[in-house]
Design brief:
Blueprint (H helix, E strand, L loop, with lengths): L4 H7 L3 E3 L7 H12 L10 E6 L2 H10 L5 H4 L2 E7 L13 H18 L3 E5 L4 H8 L6 E9 L3 E2 L8 H4 L6
Antiparallel strand pairs: 1-6, 2-3, 3-5, 4-5
The chain binds flavin mononucleotide.
Length: 171
């Protein structure tokens, strides 16, 4: 069966704001499940997704994100954390940034499919976020994903043309 995943990918763009509405718990469960089902190196699944829904915690999270209001107005903010930064793949590269990127990508696309907006946020004080969410200090908060109802998406951003980024059989 051919699924229209490319349509979901094409329709997604970063939410510039959220309307403060909550995210349906069943939709949130499916979004988190999409992350749980993502691939990871050696299937180690060294991740933990901390889903923040409480208003007071989101407000503190916003402070740790230098006042970004999206953290308050999103229905949920998922702190995508890794539980192990030490595993190196046979190619010599650490696996955790990729593992987390796959999981967050899967969650973003499921959220888009649910009709929700998303913002990936790497602008935060990691120590402050760890303290707030009681993340053990040996772990890392790799990225935040804000999810909610949004009518303000960022304008379509040009992507480099195919012939700049894709080649076949050689560089
Ligand atoms: C790893 C990563 C970190 C990002 N951090 C931020 C951020 O801190 N603040 C922000 O507004 N957008 C952030 N973004 C969103 C990107 O700026 C955005 O995805 C990019 O400009 C392409 O736009 P689009 O998502 O609308 O297609 C981040 C995206 C990624 C993948």
């Amino acid at each position: 069966m051919i699924m229209d995943i490319l349509d979901v990918i094409r329709s997604r763009s970063t939410a510039k704001s959220f309307d403060g509405g909550s995210v349906d718990p069943d939709a949130l469960d499916r979004i988190l499940d999409a992350g749980r089902l993502a691939p990871s190196a050696k299937n180690r699944q060294t991740w933990r997704f901390v889903a923040v829904r409480r208003k007071d915690v989101k407000k503190s999270l916003s402070e740790a994100c230098y006042g970004d209001p999206r953290l308050i107005d999103a229905g949920c903010v998922i702190a995508a954390c890794t539980t192990n930064i030490n595993y190196t793949m046979p190619n010599g590269q650490p696996s955790y940034p990729l593992d987390m990127a796959f999981a967050v990508s899967f969650m973003m696309l499921q959220a888009e499919h649910e009709g929700l907006g998303t913002s990936v946020l790497g602008t935060y004080d990691e120590t402050a976020v760890k303290d707030l969410l009681t993340v053990p200090h040996a772990m890392r908060v790799v990225i935040l994903l804000a999810i909610g109802h949004s009518s303000e998406k960022s304008a379509y951003k040009d992507r480099l043309p195919k012939d700049r980024v894709i080649s076949y059989d050689h560089w």
